[in-house]
Amino acid sequence: MATPIQDPRELFVHQLRTMLWVELTLADDVLPELFELVHSTHLKWAVERHLLETRDHVKNLRRVLVHLEEPANPEQTPALVALKQEHDTLLKSVPEHDLALRDIVHCDAIARTEHYELAAYSGLVHLGKALGIDHELVTALRENMEQESHALEQVEHGLAELLAEQVENVDR
Question: Is 1 contained in some domain?
C-alpha cells in the first residue's frame, strides 16, 4: 500500500521518487532497447543523445532527494508502464518488414513519454518553487524539463520526416 501523502512536501518527494523510477527505467531498459529497434538514422541519434541526458536526469533527481535528506528510493508509476505496454502492443500489429512504419510507432511512443515527463517536471518545478526549495535544485529540475522539451522537438522533427517519406511512398 502506498504511503499516505499529507502535505505538499510529501507530494514533492513522492513525485521526485516516481520521476527517479521513470528516468532509471528509461536509462536502463527502455532507451537501450529502443536504440536497437529504431532504424532511422536521425531517430537513432536522438535516442542515443537522450539516453545520455537521461542518465544526468537521474543524477539531478538523486541530488535533490539527498539535499532534502530523503532516501533516493525510486517509486514505480503505472504511467510509464502503461505507455510502454501501449507501444509494445501497437508494435505487434505492424509488419516486421515495414521499418518506416515501425519507426513512426517508436516516435509516437517517445513523444507520448516526453509529454508525460514534461508535465511531471513542470509540476515539480512549480511545487519546488512554492515550497521554497533551494534555487539551485529547482534549476536542476528545470534543466531536466528543458532537455525533455528538446528531446520532444527532436522526435517531432524525426516524426515529420518519417511521415513525409511515408506519404511520398504511398503517392507513388
Answer: no
